[in-house]
Every structure is written in C-alpha cells, then in structure tokens.
Amino acid sequence: MASNGNNHVSTKPPPEPSPLRKAKFFQANMRILVTGGAGFIGSHLVDKLMENEKNEVIVADNYFTGSKDNLKKWIGHPRFELIRHDVTEPLLIEVDQIYHLACPASPIFYKYNPVKTIKTNVIGTLNMLGLAKRTGARILLTSTSEVYGDPLVHPQDETYWGNVNPIGVRSCYDEGKRVAETLMFDYHRQHGIEIRIARIFNTYGPRMNIDDGRVVSNFIAQAIRDEPLTVQLPGTQTRSFCYVSDMVNGLMRLMDGENTGPINIGNPGEFTMLELAENVKELINPEVKIITVENTPDDPRQRKPDITKAKELLGWEPKVKLRDGLPLMEEDFRDRLGISRKK
Ligand SMILES: NC(=O)c1ccc[n+]([C@@H]2O[C@H](COP(=O)([O-])OP(=O)(O)OC[C@H]3O[C@@H](n4cnc5c(N)ncnc54)[C@H](O)[C@@H]3O)[C@@H](O)[C@H]2O)c1
Ligand SMILES: O=C(O)[C@H]1O[C@H](OP(=O)(O)OP(=O)(O)OC[C@H]2O[C@@H](n3ccc(=O)[nH]c3=O)[C@H](O)[C@@H]2O)[C@H](O)[C@@H](O)[C@@H]1O
C-alpha cells in the first residue's frame, strides 16, 4: 500500500497503464529500436525481429538513403512503429535493445555530405548511447571493415588497428565509425553500458538501392539494363561479399550473446572486382560487356575478414555462397526496374 507522505495511507491502487498500450503491446516483452531500419540491412533485420511475437520494433530513420517501401509490410502492425527521426537529434523513448545502424553506407552517399556523415556517426552514436544510458538498454553498433582502411594485414582480424587516411574523402565514414567505436567503449567503461560492436564486411542482397553506386547493386542493375559492367581500375582490388540473411543472423547472435566485440561479421570468400563482374555476367546476362573505368581516391586494395572470433564466440558463419546469392537479387531488381527476363 502506498503512502502519500502525510501519514495518510492511501487505499487507492496505482493507476493501470493505459488500456490502449495494453491492447497494443500485450504480447511484447522486448522493445527494440532499430535506427536506420528503413535501409537495406536494417529492413531485413526488422523482418527477422518481427518474426518473434515477443518483440515490439521501433524504427527511427530520416529516409536519407532508406525508404518506407522497405518496411511497407509492417506499417500498421500493432507491434511496429516507424518514426521519421534524425539520430543527430536526441530521441526520448523507452527501449530494451538498440540496433544502431543509421548512417549512409554507400561511398557515393556518405561522400555526398561528409560533414553530415561524420555528425551522424559521432553525434548520432552519442545520442543513442545517451538513450542506452538512460534506459539501461543494450546497444549494438554496426561498424565497418572500413575501420581497417587500406589494410596492410590480410585477412583482417579484430586485433588489427588499421591503415586509415584521417584527411581523405572516405574519412568522414571510416574515421567516423572509428570514433563511434571509441564512444561505445568509453560509455561501456565509464557508465557500464552493455555494448556490442559488429564490424560488417561488404553485404549484398535484395532491397539494395538500385543506383547507390555499390559494386554488387551496380553490376546487377547494369546486367539487367544491358549496360556494360563498370569495373573500376585496376579491377584486381578484392572484396568479400556476405549475403544479407547471413549478416542479419550474425548481428542478432552478437546482440543476444555475451561478447562486446568488436567482431567481424562477413563472408571470407574473396573476389577481385573483375571476378565479380564475370560472375554477374555468367549468372545474369552472358551478353553483357565488361569495361574498365577510373577509380576514386583511397579505394582499399584488398579486404577479407578473419571470422575465427565470430565462429568461436557466436557459433556463426555465413552459409550463402556468392554464386547462390547473386541470383537471389535478380528478381527484386527486375521488379523494381520493370525489366523482365528475356525469353
Ligand atoms: N551494407 C554494407 O556492406 C555495410 C558494410 C559495413 C557497414 N555497414 C553499416 O551497416 C549500416 C546499414 O547499412 P546499409 O547497407 O543498410 O545502408 P543503407 O544506406 O541502406 O541504410 C542506412 C539507413 O540509415 C538511415 N540514415 C542515414 N543517416 C541517418 C540519420 N542521420 N538519422 C536517421 N537515419 C539515418 C538511412 O536513411 C537508411 O535507411 C550502416 O551503419 C553501415 O555503415 C554496411
Ligand atoms: O564493407 C564495408 O566495410 C564497406 O564496404 C563498402 O565500401 P566499398 O567496399 O568501397 O564498396 P563499393 O562501393 O561497393 O566498392 C567495392 C569495390 O568495387 C569497385 N567498384 C564499384 C562500383 C563499380 O561500378 N565498379 C567497381 O569496380 C570499387 O572500386 C571498389 O573497389 C560499403 O559501401 C560501405 O558502407 C561499407 O562500410
């Protein structure tokens, strides 16, 4: 029984939560915020989180590179909420977990407004850490293999500190993510916040922006449009491509496990850009041409994750091979481009 501090004992029970809230959230016992949830990886993560009836999912996104279309099947669902919000502004809500993905990821978008990109990484991560501190939520940051810069160690494991140009055109992104990682660990050490850091390596799959300039989406769209595949010079640079369902599984294992990370999440299958173009040509359009074009500054020459830590600590490894994953994107791209397969 509650006292009102006036030596008078109230017999009135405390007020019930609003019946509306009860009706809406009666099943939920985990409220999860996904920043950047209208984007490519974020929307696939939301799909997976929503499969669990105990989860209530809130997406905060400013739609810079994401789209409501990616979430259309959840809009109106009682366990789902979508907020137009820029993470560079504080967000005052109650949550149990935060997947912090908000940040433009394609080089052409993150270089478009580099000051905004670094604000998103630094101020956005500070705001989400502040939210985690106030609510006691666990927070996962999607960092990047770009923290290794143009790596001099190959493959890259998590102990490598990287080879990053601090004043280059990519720095807003890779240095931004490095500061974001620093902030995560400082909040962890200073305030005891529960943190998780995933270092994501190149991820591909349906719902990538068609014209976002990333290599897999470029090549698939070019192959479907009968345009030459543009391999940026020298073409021998390598990347390791992870299918999005594998990525989402890895992120959820990291969030739900006991390790802070950083942990590399990626597929160690390594390809040169010429090899990737040849695979797309063979699988999607054998008639298409492959041409070489100028590259952009500071393009990393090689990239391949060492995933020993993910295997040992998360029991995770990717399952989808590149040659199986590429055709899974074709239908989604054809639908959005309105170009059907030739008979
Ligand atoms: N896809 C990859 O290969 C890859 C690799 C490494 C790391 N990552 C990281 O994973 C995350 C998701 O990447 P993605 O490929 O889905 O990219 P994406 O561009 O499709 O998604 C990013 C989302 O964040 C939103 N956003 C951007 N700035 C915001 C802001 N200030 N406030 C609120 N929302 C904002 C965008 O509108 C978009 O919906 C990013 O943090 C990215 O750095 C991705
Ligand atoms: O995985 C990562 O950590 C990072 O990977 C990518 O950055 P990047 O590897 O430069 O991605 P792309 O723009 O797809 O370029 C990959 C390679 O393809 C080449 N490329 C790109 C586009 C194209 O049309 N042709 C082409 O050969 C580029 O020169 C580069 O060598 C992502 O876009 C980042 O968000 C992410 O953080």
TrEMBL record:
Pfam families: GDP_Man_Dehyd
Residue ranges of the TM segments: none
Domain NAD(P)-binding: 33-327
Region annotated Disordered, chain positions: 1-20
Cofactor requirements of the protein: NAD(+)
Gene Ontology MF, one: NAD+ binding
EC number of the protein: 4.1.1.35
One GO CC term, this protein: cytoplasm
Catalytic EC class: lyase
The UniProt record lists the keyword NAD: yes
Pathway linked to the protein: Nucleotide-sugar biosynthesis; UDP-alpha-D-xylose biosynthesis; UDP-alpha-D-xylose from UDP-alpha-D-glucuronate: step 1/1
UniProt entry keywords in alphabetical sequence: Cytoplasm, Decarboxylase, Lyase, NAD
GO BP terms, alphabetized: D-xylose metabolic process; UDP-D-xylose biosynthetic process
InterPro entries in the record: NAD(P)-bd_dom, NAD(P)-bd_dom_sf, UXS-like
Subcellular location: Cytoplasm
Record-linked Gene3D superfamilies: NAD(P)-binding Rossmann-like Domain (3.40.50.720)
Feature: compositional bias, Polar residues: 1-10
Swiss-Prot/TrEMBL catalytic activity: UDP-alpha-D-glucuronate + H(+) = UDP-alpha-D-xylose + CO2
Family according to the record: Belongs to the NAD(P)-dependent epimerase/dehydratase family. UDP-glucuronic acid decarboxylase subfamily.
Matching PANTHER family: UDP-GLUCURONATE DECARBOXYLASE, UDP-GLUCURONIC ACID DECARBOXYLASE-RELATED
Role description: Catalyzes the NAD-dependent decarboxylation of UDP-glucuronic acid to UDP-xylose. Necessary for the biosynthesis of the core tetrasaccharide in glycosaminoglycan biosynthesis.
Protein name listed in UniProt: UDP-glucuronate decarboxylase
Organism: Solanum tuberosum (Potato)
This protein's encoding gene: LOC102606064
